[in-house]
Amino acid sequence: MSKKDGINRNKEHPTSPDTASDKYDGLSRRDFMRIASLSAAGVFTGSLMSGCGELWERQPVIDVDSWHQGVCRFCGTGCGIKIGMSDGKVVDVKGDPAAHNRGRLCIKGILNREILYVEDRALYPMIRKNGELERASWEEAMELIASRFSQSIQNSGPDSVAFYGSGQLFTEESYSANKLFKAGIGTNNVDGNPRLCMASAAVGYTSVFGKDEPMGCYEDTDHADCFFVTGSNMAECHPIVWERLQDRKRSNPDTFLIVVDPRKTRTAEHADLFLQIKPGTDVALYNSMIYEFYRRGLVDLEMIEDYLSFQSGSNSITEEQFRSHLEKYTPERAASVCGISAEQIREAAFRFGNSPATMSFWTMGLNQQIQGTAANRLVMAMHLLTGQIGRPGATPFSLTGQPNAGGGVRDTGSLAHALPNGRLVANPKHRKEMEELWNVPEGTISPNPGHHAISLFQAMNSGDVECALIMSTNPIQSLPNILPYRDAMENAFVVVADAFHPTETTKYADVVLPAAMWAEKGGVFSQSERRYHYVPNLVEPKGEARSDFDIIIDLADRLGHGDLFPNRTQADIWEEWRKISAHSTYNFEGITYERLKNQPGILWPCPDEDHPGTCRRYVPGEDPLVKDEDARLDFYGRPDGRALIYLHEQGEPYENQNEKFPLLLTTGRVLEHWHTETITRRVDDLKNIKTDFLEVHPADAARYGLQDGDDVRVASRRGDAEFVTRITDDIREGLVFATFHSAKHLVNKVTSDAVDPFSRQPDYKRCAVSIEKA
Ligand SMILES: Nc1nc2c(c(=O)[nH]1)N[C@H]1C(S)=C(S)[C@@H](COP(=O)(O)OP(=O)(O)OC[C@H]3O[C@@H](n4cnc5c(=O)[nH]c(N)nc54)[C@H](O)[C@@H]3O)O[C@H]1N2
Ligand SMILES: Nc1nc2c(c(=O)[nH]1)N[C@H]1C(S)=C(S)[C@@H](COP(=O)(O)OP(=O)(O)OC[C@H]3O[C@@H](n4cnc5c(=O)[nH]c(N)nc54)[C@H](O)[C@@H]3O)O[C@H]1N2
Ligand code: SF4
Ligand SMILES: [Mo]
Q: Which of 368, 388, 474, 488 lies 20 to 30 Å from 627, alpha-carbon distance?
């Protein structure tokens, strides 16, 4: 492949391949380069420990035949990309200047090209025979699956089978699987990895506003004067939204950044105010900030009077009752719970409430707690009570993790308790509506919510669920407390459709189906800001791989439910789905394939084909579904148009630290790797980026006789795993941190599967452990 000579060096952030750190040696020798550190006062330092994210650009490839509009395969930022093709191969990927990311990409975005050409793709179906996975034909594999599923359904009823999906499937795929299982087979056993990821945010939005999904958009970042970033390491996990936040800071130096995180992450390094709280104490912190809003007169009385109601559990309460509960959360008291100073809480509250426009961002640090729903509701409450909502730059914005957890799973209702567009399985009216829209007899949809992720794997273990289809997710690495779920894989008949083999999950499968991946198939993704956008099918699938959509339709036919899909293409499914959406406040009837193929995405609501899409929901003049044009806001998702403020008390940890397990473990991610690394570990340029470390505070290292680089065993009540010690004071004393990326160092043998009582999302962010030299 020929390359142009001149590299488009960013003058303000001069760099060259040889200034890149050792960590990126492989990369800098190749044909792309880091063009800028994302912040650090705008100066590129060449050090990855400078606290910056990075932007990347490839040296232009000159033999590109055609350019195609697409979307990055990785995170919920959902960057628009341009895909360069030559001779039927993807030869270049660059940021789309017309998309919200303004042409910028992080390292994973650039590598969308190489991920198509890495080793270890699953190439043909495999069936387990005498304990070993052996090559089989599609016909043999699909017949076996159909007969095992049919047998179970016949003998043990529809609830003996299940689908476990992913926020990385296309919308058409999740929608079809959901329809097959709920309207065809007649079971609500449909769940997926968004349960591990976005469930607390979804319950938060739904219970507060009546409808799921954030009301704001990325553009709000350009208007905010104060950012409240909590439980989110944006610089590594949503680097291009982070870059937009940094743009705002650069153009408006008074912009104030508050970061709440038990670790001093690359995000936290840039904070103007950093609250390094004890894990799991968010509820106390936010209650205390709300206490301060009242004390300092920062509450918005008009909002309270006209747009808010107060709630405790399922009971209405008065504002006075809510206020008196706050008395327990004076900054002094909250400070001792959270492990920070009262002065920090006061300042955070003042900055948040007093700024012209405050925007919050949060992700797994909130969602993955046993009080995840409570923490979500309280961040929303902070915006509602101070009126920091519904204006440019003033919005509570939950960042979505995966590229299609929002549109694909939350909005299609591909979860065990849900039906499309915010409907609920348990609601007879909602079932009837969906039965009519799906054109199936009344009573088809089961009134019983299915198994959520954790309970599904428990049911596979106990034998209640006999057959499962797992698609585009690797649960035997990503579920918490995985050891018992390995047994679940042995006990049930499990089909795994994955683009790669082996993975921790395919290893235990009865049937492995080779899946086509990104750009080997096309479809619709939706990212954090309700933007639907389209990924084109540009290359042939590897080997005998088929798209997940084709697999679902084939299974539907073989189970006798082919008539649910009278037209067989994804385009037909999209048509069906956008028309169904018109019967709801998630209306995107105006978003056609045609439009998506010609522009980098559209934000719903979008009721007709002339509508440009909606930046701010619930806002008169912006949201086409708002009825009262004279109102300040219209929370039309709620029957009385009033959003709910929930009372929540700070709870106790679900498991105690004691002499045997004196420390806390928290888990998360690094910039360069994606989840279980099935893709990123196979990319040459990322192979050497380490994810085998356990971060330990120097005081704890001294206490347990650990040196930097020592092998260390971390153990909980459930299991243990070995890592390499990395000593750092970026972490709170008493807390250790590992990523869940590495399949060699499975941290989820140690984590706990305790779940939030409302969202059923597990708490990956806090469990009691011991450490010792291994
Ligand atoms: N590079 C990269 N990017 C990704 C992904 C990836 O695998 N790699 N995955 C994508 C997906 S699916 C997701 S869900 C997102 C996740 O994105 P993030 O949520 O930003 O990532 P995490 O590292 O899981 O956790 C975020 C932060 O929460 C903090 N935290 C832990 N406990 C608490 C607490 O009790 N309170 C508060 N306030 N904070 C706490 C952690 O220290 C951590 O810094 O990233 C997406 N983007
Ligand atoms: N300890 C700990 N554990 C966690 C978390 C944490 O913070 N800490 N975070 C949780 C969160 S937020 C998430 S989202 C989950 C993610 O957990 P997983 O979803 O299990 O992680 P991935 O590695 O993204 O798995 C996707 C799988 O799909 C395959 N694949 C890729 N493309 C395709 C395709 O088009 N079709 C098919 N069929 N397969 C494909 C990949 O090879 C891979 O095996 O992890 C959760 N687990
Ligand atoms: S920020 Fe997310 S969507 Fe954008 S290039 Fe990076 S991984 Fe892809
Ligand atoms: Mo996630």
A: 388
* Catalytic (active site) residue 364: yes
pLDDT interval class at 414 (50, 70, 90): very high
Q: Which one of 553, 573, 603 terminates a domain?
A: 603
Q: Is pLDDT at 121 greater than 70 in this prediction? A: yes
Distance CA 350, CA 256 (A): 11
Ligand 3 neighbourhood includes 242 CB (under 6 angstroms): no
Same domain, 742 and 688: yes
* Pick from 314, 277, 294, 267: nearest CA to 381: 294
Q: What is the average pLDDT across 52-62?
A: 73
Residue 44 is predicted with a pLDDT of 27
Could you tell me if residue 645 is inside a domain?
Answer: no
pLDDT tens digits, one per residue of 491-517: 999 999 999 999 999 999 999 999 999
Is 413 found in the same domain as 357?
no
Could you say which of 192, 216, 390, 401 is catalytic? Answer: 401
User: What is the extent of the structural domain holding 679?
Assistant: 663-773
Residue 560, classified by CB atoms within 10 Å of its CB into exposed (0-12), middle (13-18) or buried (19+), is exposed
Collapsing DSSP to helix, strand or coil, 643 comes out as: strand
Q: What is the pLDDT averaged over residues 655-682? A: 97
The response to whether residue 263 sits with its C-beta less than 6 Å from ligand 1 reads yes
What's the pLDDT tens digit per position in 739-759? 999 999 999 999 999 999 999
Q: Which atom of ligand 2 is nearest to the CA of 677?
A: 23
Task: Give residue 567's pLDDT.
Answer: 85
Same domain for 438 and 571? yes
| Catalytic pick among 52, 79, 215, 364 | 364
CA 361 to ligand 3 center in whole angstroms:
16
If asked whether residues 591 and 713 sit together in one domain, one would say: no
| Residue 197 annotated as catalytic | yes
The yes-or-no verdict on residue 687 having pLDDT over 80 is yes
Structural domain count of the chain: 4
Ligand nearest to the CA of 364: 1
Note the pLDDT of residue 352: 98
Question: Are residues 191 and 203 both part of a single domain?
Answer: no
User: CATH number for the domain including 716?
Assistant: 2.40.40.20
Measured from the Cα of 475, ligand 2's closest atom is 20
Q: Whose CA is nearest to atom 17 of ligand 1?
A: 237
Looking up residue 358, the CATH number of its domain turns out to be: 3.40.228.10
Which residue is catalytic, options 75, 85, 197, 359?
197
Q: What is the 3-state secondary structure (H, E, C) of 702-769?
A: HHCCCCCCCEEEEECCCCEEEEEEEECCCECCCEEEEECCCCCCCHHHCCCCCECCCCCCECCCCEEE
Distance CA 98, CA 290 (A): 40
Count of beta carbons in the 10 Å neighbourhood of residue 70 = 26
Residue 441 to residue 632: CA distance in whole angstroms: 43
Q: Are 369 and 222 in a shared domain?
A: yes
One domain for residues 424 and 310: no
Question: Does a structural domain hold residue 14?
Answer: no
Mean pLDDT of the chain: 93
Is position 434 annotated as part of the catalytic site? no
